Amino acid sequence: MNPIPILADIHFPALVGIAFVVVAVIALIKTARIVPQRSAHVVERLGKYHKTLEAGFHILVPFIDRVAYKHSLKEVAVDVPSQMCITKDNIAIEIDGVLYMQVLDARAASYGIENYYFAASQLAQTTLRSEIGKIELDRTFEERETINASVIEALDKASEPWGLKITRYEIANITPPQSVQDALEKQMRAERERRAQIALSEGQREAQINVAEGEKQEAIKISEAKKLSQVNEAEGKAREIELLANATADGIQRIAGAIEAPGGQAAVNLRVAEQYVREFGNLAKEGNTLIIPQNLSDIGGTVAGLAKILQGGGIVPGAGSEPDKDGDLRTVKKTSPPTPPPLD
Asked: Is residue 66 a part of any domain in this protein?
């Protein structure tokens, strides 16, 4: 079928209308813009900055306005490639990190620099090399916060004309050479051994202190027990002496009462005679010297004399015997009574 007759049948005004509709649809597609939340579009009019579109629906002038740049206003993370840095003590280490930034001014980010991601990453690397060169290797592991703060300060100041805000920078990895790693491992091993020795010595010292304290407490307890034992023994001896003295006094009182009773004097005389004979016999056993009284044949007179002494209230010095703690008579040394002074 030949399409030319069909086109010939279509009127020219209809063709113009269809063309207008097509152009209108294309113009609407080109000019209508929907900007997402937390985004910004930079519009140029005839190649010159016109305005910045924020979140929402916008209509542009067809064929005159165009969206030249699109920016996300969210905070983004950019990997900073690893690089070799020289420390103050001339040791090369490999360091990489992560940079966090946010676009605050879409116009400045569009016209201030060509590629702010690349620029910020390169500036972070150069600043990091400068900061690492100021410190020694051992301090690079300890002062990460200081290094991060220095990099952020330098980047934030340099990126202000770019419409950027550098929020954070974090050092991800610090990799020293293998020889340095071996030396650091030996150093850490030596440090751990030193701490172990210190802990062991402190434990031994605490153990010795505990043993000494235990021995001290033991000695105190032993001395206190000994003191209590001596006090108890002394109290026991005092009680024994008291009871013995009371018993002796009671016995003496009973003997005195028995002497005053009927027949008591005769019993005393018999007891004195027995004691006299026994003690006189003991004198011959204990030594080679034998003492013989003048009136040896008159034992009865001797006993009678002793009885008179007892009746008189006591034993006169030189009587020859006295009662001991058992109530018996014991031999005493004979002495002459003192001569009374002459009467004037």
From this structure: yes
Tell me, yes or no, whether 246 lies in a domain: no
**Whether the Cβ atoms of residue 146 and residue 65 lie closer than 8 Å to each other:** no
Helix (H, G, I), strand (E, B) or coil at 191: helix
Residue 89 placed within a domain = yes
What are the backbone dihedrals phi and psi of residue 93, each rounded to the nearest 5 degrees, phi first?
-130, 150
Q: Which two tokens stand for residue 111?
A: 């016209």
Nearest in space to 84 (alpha carbons), one of 153, 144, 173, 166: 173
**159 and 90, same structural domain?**
yes
Q: What is the pLDDT of residues 9-44, one digit of tens each?
A: 556 777 777 887 887 777 777 778 889 999 999 999
**pTM of model > 0.85:** no
Q: Quick check: helix, strand or coil at residue 53?
A: strand
Residue 211 is assigned to a structural domain of this protein: no
The answer to whether residues 174 and 85 touch, using CB atoms and an 8 Å cutoff, is no
Indicate whether 84 and 162 sit together in one domain. yes
Say how far apart CA 259 and CA 268 lie, in whole Å: 7
Residues 84-105 have pLDDT tens digits of 999 988 888 899 999 999 999 9
H or E segment and range at residue 323 = strand 321-323
**What range does the domain containing 93 cover?**
76-176
The number of domains in the chain is 3
Residue 299 phi/psi, 5-degree rounding, is: -65, -40
